[in-house]
Amino acid sequence: MLARRQPDLTVLMENVHKPHNFSAVVRTADAVGIWEAHAIVPAGGVPLHHLASGGSRKWVNLRVHHDLESARQALSERKFQLLAAHPAERAVDFRQVDFTRPTAVMFGQEKEGLTEGALAAADQLIVVPMEGMVASLNVSVAAALILFEAQRQRRAAGLYESSRLEPEELERTLFEWCYPEIAEVCQRRGVTYPELDENGELLGDLEAIKRDAAG
Fold it and tell me: What pTM value is reported for the model?
């Protein structure tokens, strides 16, 4: 699962403040293998809902920004294309864009949608075509549709076939996922993580390692 994480696919939630929606987007991000999600939360704090997230917050790194500019700059430095999910005449069908490129999909607040600043910063506006009377879907539903299209394209391009994380990052995260309690103690004491074999098993006696980590 870790080897299939996509370091160059992400979401940017701008002021998505309802916990069940925020958490549902994070859950979908985990389902399609997103490595890191981004959120703009000016007031600070993350509105996660424990029932909706289903523990997915443990597996998706969440980077919080206090304003749009800092979020945009962080993604721009990594050469992400910025796609804004927003119903507008100039928006294109979300299935027409290339999600195999480094991509960040922006989603806005439940009632107002994305701000004018976010729309101006976007490289492209995308939309889920609607045939009914309503103009848009719930933000978590729209995110699911768009992200699974991204997954479909990336699978076809072979981007899930081998790890695309840096080797050191892969090894570090593997240890933290497999042995969270030992990792926490090592972090607290500033101790290097014990080595793992190719199957993710600890090299050495588990109880001895626990004693050494605890000091």
Answer: 0.88
